[in-house]
Structure formats: C-alpha cells, structure tokens
Amino acid sequence: MLFAVICNDKPGCLQLRMDTRPEHLVFLETLNGKGSLALAGPFLDSEGKPNGSLVVIEAPDQKSAELIAAEDPYAKAGLFASVEIRPWNWTFNKPETA
Fold first, then answer.
1. Strands 80-88 and 2-9: what pairing?
2. What is each CA distance from 11 to 4, 8, 52, 78, 92, in whole angstroms?
3. In this structure, what is the dihedral angle of CA atoms 70, 72, 74, 75, given to the nearest 10 degrees?
4. What confidence tens digit (pLDDT) does each residue in 25-40 have?
C-alpha cells in the first residue's frame, strides 16, 4: 500500500534542512533501492525555497509507514513542525515501475 508522508518544516529552519540534506538523500536512495520509494520532493515557499516534503512510500500498513518516516534524517533532526501520513492511491500518470 502507498502512503503519502506530508511534512511541514518548522519556521526558520532552512539551514537545518540544508545541513541535513545529504543524509536525507542517502535515506531516500536506500528506500529507492529497496523498492519502497514511489516519489519524493520538497514543497516550496513563495520564494522557491524548500519548506516541507512530500514522500510517497510503499509499506504494508500505517504503523510500518510511520516507522519508516521516523527514520528520515530530517525527522530525526527535528526539522518538521508537523507530519501527516495518509494512505494514498496513485490513479493518474503512474509509471509502470512504481
């Protein structure tokens, strides 16, 4: 099952995001290598700077998705003001490999 992990950064934490980004990318590459990552990317503010994340992952259930999300270096660094994890159905423009 797919889960959308919707994360909003704490205000004023762009530097924390940038400092933690290399570890976050390794985390996403690891998920991708396991076939657990469907898509990922940052939300942007009005100036085009990242201020949150959307990560869609494959997990057997809600609890497993929560455990995966908790391992994100951004989450561990305390970057997020909020995280919402919701089951998601990819209906349109789904790549054959996803």
1. antiparallel
2. 22, 9, 10, 12, 33
3. 0
4. 999 999 999 999 999 9
Give the C-alpha separation, 84 to 54, whole Å: 10
Would you state the structure tokens that stand for residue 4, as one six-digit string?
A: 């959308």
Separation in Å, CA 70 to CA 23, 82, 96: 14, 12, 28
| Residue 75 confidence (pLDDT) above 90 | yes
d(CA 8, CA 83): 7
Dihedral in degrees, nearest 10, Cα atoms 74, 50, 8, 39: -70
Cα–Cα distance measured from residue 97 to residue 16, given in angstroms and rounded to the nearest whole number: 33
pLDDT in tens, 3-16: 999 999 999 999 99
Contact 27, 73 (CB under 8 A): yes
